[in-house]
Amino acid sequence: MRIHCHFSGELVDADAKPTLTLLNESSGINPHSEIAWTSIQLKPGEEPTLHYRYHLWIPY
After folding, report:
1. What is the pLDDT of residues 18-41, one digit of tens each?
2. pLDDT-derived band of residue 51, with 50, 70 and 90 as boundaries?
3. What is the number of domains present in the chain?
4. I want to staple 25 with a disulfide (CB 3.0 to 4.6 A). Which of 31, 32, 34, 54 is the partner?
């Protein structure tokens, strides 16, 4: 199973050792990234809960 998410900001930490890919869509001070979990094993009917944290810089 592959679970992925796109976000803007800098990854701080994440569950289950995902891969991080920086995307070339960056505009401004925050990088755009894709985080992906590819080795998640689930039993039938099981729903995963994965956590990740990132920093998002907001200019003021």
Report:
1. 999 999 876 788 999 999 999 888
2. very high
3. 1
4. 32
60 inside domain: no
Phi, psi of 41 (to 5 degrees): -105, 125
Q: Tell me the residue type at 19.
A: T
Asked if residue 21 belongs to a domain, the reply is yes
Query: Are 9 and 30 in contact, with CB atoms under 8 Å apart?
Result: yes
Give the whole-angstrom CA distance, residue 41 versus residue 4: 15
The residue segments making up the domain with residue 16 are 3-55
CB 53 within 8 A of CB 12: yes
Query: Is residue 36 in a domain?
Result: yes
In a domain, 14, yes or no: yes
Rounded to whole angstroms, the Cα distance separating 24 from 5 reads 15
